[in-house]
Fold this sequence. Notes:
By secondary structure, the protein is of the alpha/beta class. The protein contains 8 helices and 5 strands. Shikimate-3-phosphate binds at residues 10, 14, 33, 44, 78-80, 117-119.
Amino acid sequence: xxxxxxxxxxxxxxxxxxxxxxxxxxxxxxxxxxxxxxxxxxxxxxxxxxxxxxxxxxxxxxxxxxxxxxxxxxxxxxxxxxxxxxxxxxxxxxxxxxxxxxxxxxxxxxxxxxxxxxxxxxxxxxxxxxxxxxxxxxxxxxxxxxxxxxxxxxxxxxxxxxxxxxxxxxxx
Length: 172
Ligand code: S3P
């Protein structure tokens, strides 16, 4: 178990929890959205608008394949990345896959003031959250560990992630 991969819906805290967990483990931290933005030279909204979602998903697959050589890294993934079972299977080969979970209501509270998520730029973003969450729940449930971040602070969630990682590595 060389790495930690955080999966889960938008707004469940993957990046903030991941950064903190990485800091505490003295691991590197990477975010698949950031890797894609750096690689393509455009923001996620620009990629969706100019190249379309299928092109973005292709970049996600490429990034996941490139991650297989990582060591000592906490990887935060985009919310739709593990909807592709091949991506999840690939992450599981080298990482403890931890899904951060939250209710649609909590997710909405966290994302409503933000505008960088193209999938939520619709007339009824709350309905979109419920729809996508229902669609993806079976994929998220395939993670090795599920952590509800609804009532937990970033720090508490990061502690849980570390605890599960140490258990998985028999260091608990
Ligand atoms: C997406 C989630 C986003 C980003 C893109 C698509 C999704 O990442 O990858 O906007 O399909 O749920 P976050 O989960 O970090 O917001």
